[in-house]
Automatic annotation (TrEMBL):
Belongs to the aspartokinase family. GO terms for biological process: homoserine biosynthetic process; lysine biosynthetic process via diaminopimelate; threonine biosynthetic process. Gene3D superfamilies: Acetylglutamate kinase-like, Aspartokinase, catalytic domain. NCBIfam families: asp_kinases. Keywords: Amino-acid biosynthesis, ATP-binding, Kinase, Nucleotide-binding, Transferase. This is Aspartokinase. It comes from Niastella yeongjuensis.
Length: 422
C-alpha cells in the first residue's frame, strides 16, 4: 500500500480538487491511504477565528468563521451533485461544533481553543474531497483521524501515543483498507483520551502521513506539491535552481535544519526507521519524475542553497577582555536552553562569542538582558543566514557578492555565512 498526502495548495480551488481526482484515478488499483490538508489558507483563517474568540470579540470570531463556512459551501455546491446532501449534513455538524464553542466564554488556555477550532479545516476539506472522489468513481472511505491518532494534551504541539495509535491502525484502518481500498483522512490533527481535538504543529500533515506509512508498512509515501520536486534552491529567488532527483533522509534533515521549507522535519524519522522511501511529486503533472528520498548514501550532489531571513547576530565580549573561559560559556548554553533558543550558528573566539539566531524579539531581549551580567552585549538585526551544502568556491563567491560578510563558518561539506545587505 501507499500513503499519499495532498497539501492545502492542491485543494484550494475546484479545479485543483478536480486535478486531485485525475491523479487518483490513475492509482485506482492500489491500496491508498490519502491524507488531505485544509484548503488553501484555511488554517490561517481559523487561527484568526480562535484569536478573536480568545480576545473576547465574539461577533468578529463568528463573522470570520462565517466567511470560512461560505467558502466551503460554495466549493461543495460546485463539485457535488448526488452526494451533496450527505456531505452537507457532515459539514453542518462541524460548523455547529465550532459555533457552539464560539458562543461560550474562554475559560481555558488559548492553545486548547486553538486546537478545537483549527482542526475543523482538515475535517471540512476531507469531507468535500472524499464525496467528490466517490462521485467521479474513485471509491473511498472517509475516516475521522481523531478516532485513530491518539495524542497527549500538549495542545498545538501534541505528541503521538504510538502504542494506542498503532493498535487503532491495526484494528480499524487495516480492515477498512482491505474493504474499501482507498481511505481519505486528515493530517495534522488528533485527539486526547478525553476526546479533545489536538494539532501536531503547523504543516504537520506530512508527519501524519509518515506515521501512517510507518504503521501500515507502506511501500512509499507520496507528497503531492505544486512544485516539480525538491529543488537545490528556492526557484522564486534563484532562476538556476535545479531539481534534485534523489536525496537521502540525512540530507533532508540537514536542509530542514538550516531553514529549507522542504518537508516537515518530524516526517523523516518514522520513514527512516522503516526504510520507506518518500516521493515528492508534482500534482500539476503527475508524470514528472519528482524527487525520491531514501536511506542510501549519495555522491555528487550539486550545491544546495538555503537562505534563512530575519536573523539576528548577538556579539558577546567578555567584560574585562579576559579569556572567555568555560564557565561563561557553560552559563551561556544554560541561558539558551532556559529561554528555548536554538542558535543557528555559533562561534567562540578568544574574548568573544557570536551567535546567529532567529530574530524573535521577546527571546532576543531576554537573552541580551540575561547575558549582560556576564558579557558586553551587542545585537544586530535584519541579517540573512546563507547555507550552502556541497559548496564550491565559485558558488560561495557568487552568493556573497554584494553583501557584507558578518560571520563565516565552513566544514568540508557545508559553508554558512551571516550576511548583511549593503
Ligand atoms: N493545515 C495545516 C497547516 O496549514 C497542516 C498542513 O497543511 O500540513 O499548517
Ligand atoms: Mg501545507
Amino acid at each position: 500500500m501507499k500513503v499519499f498526502k495532498f497539501g492545502g495548495a492542491s485543494v484550494n480551488s475546484t479545479e485543483r480538487i478536480q486535478q486531485v481526482g485525475h491523479i487518483l484515478k490513475s492509482y485506482q488499483d492500489e491500496e491508498l491511504l490519502i491524507v488531505i490538508s485544509a484548503m488553501g489558507k484555511t488554517t490561517n483563517a481559523l487561527e484568526k477565528v480562535a484569536e478573536s474568540f480568545y480576545a473576547g470579540k465574539k461577533e468578529e470570531a463568528l463573522q470570520l468563521f462565517e466567511a470560512i463556512k461560505q467558502n466551503h459551501l460554495t466549493i461543495a455546491k460546485f463539485l457535488l451533485v448526488t452526494t451533496y446532501n450527505e456531505a452537507l449534513d457532515q459539514l453542518v455538524n462541524f460548523f455547529t461544533e465550532v459555533e457552539w464553542l464560539l458562543h461560550d466564554k474562554p475559560v481555558q488556555e488559548f492553545d486548547y481553543y486553538y486546537d478545537q477550532v483549527v482542526c475543523i479545516g482538515e475535517l471540512l476539506s476531507t469531507v468535500i474531497v472524499s464525496a467528490y472522489l466517490n462521485e467521479i468513481g474513485f471509491a473511498n472511505h472517509w475516516v475521522d483521524v481523531r478516532d485513530i491518532i491518539r495524542t497527549d494534551d500538549n495542545f498545538r504541539d501534541a505528541n503521538i501515543d504510538w502504542r494506542f495509535t498503532s493498535e487503532r491502525v491495526e484494528n480499524l484502518v487495516t480492515p477498512l483498507l482491505k474493504e474499501y481500498k482507498a481511505i481519505v483522512t486528515q493530517g495534522f490533527i488528533g485527539s486526547t483520551d478525553e476526546n479533545e481535538s489536538t494539532t501536531l504543529g503547523r504543516e504537520g500533515s506530512d508527519y501524519t502521513a509518515a506515521v501512517f506509512a510507518n504503521l501500515l508498512n507502506a511501500s512509499g509515501q507520496y507528497i503531492w506539491k505544486d512544485v516539480e520536486g525538491v529543488m537545490s534552491a528556492d526557484p522564486k529567488e534563484f532562476s538556476d535552481a535545479q531539481l534534485l532527483r534523489e536525496l537521502n533522509y540525512d540530507e533532508v534533515i540537514e536542509m530542514a535544519y538550516y531553514g529549507a521549507q522542504v518537508i516537515h522535519p518530524k516526517t523523516i524519522k518514522p520513514l527512516q526507521n522503516k526504510g520507506i522511501p518518500l516521493y515528492v511529486k508534482c500534482f500539476l503533472d503527475k508524470d514528472l519524475a519528482g524527487t525520491v528520498i531514501h536511506n542510501k548514501s549519495l555522491k555528487g550532489l550539486p550545491p544546495i542553497v538555503v537562505l534563512k531571513q530575519n536573523q539576528a547576530l548577538i556579539q558577546l565580549h567578555s567584560k574585562d577582555f579576559s579569556f572567555v573561559g568555560e564557565k561563561p560559556v557553560a552559563e551561556l548554553y544554560q541561558l539558551l536552553a532556559d529561554i528555548k533558543i536554538k542558535p543557528n550558528l555559533m562561534q567562540t573566539g578568544a574574548v568573544s562569542i557570536q551567535i546567529c539566531l532567529d530574530n524573535h524579539a521577546e527571546k532576543l531581549e531576554k537573552l541580551a538582558h540575561a547575558a549582560s551580567d556576564i558579557f558586553d552585549v551587542q545585537v544586530e538585526k535584519g541579517l540573512t543566514l546563507l547555507t550552502i551544502r556541497h559548496y564550491n568556491e565559485a558558488i560561495l563567491q557568487k552568493m556573497v557578492a554584494g553583501s557584507k560578510v558578518e560571520l563565516l563558518q565552513q566544514t568540508p561539506e557545508t559553508v554558512q555565512v551571516v550576511l548583511k545587505a549593503v
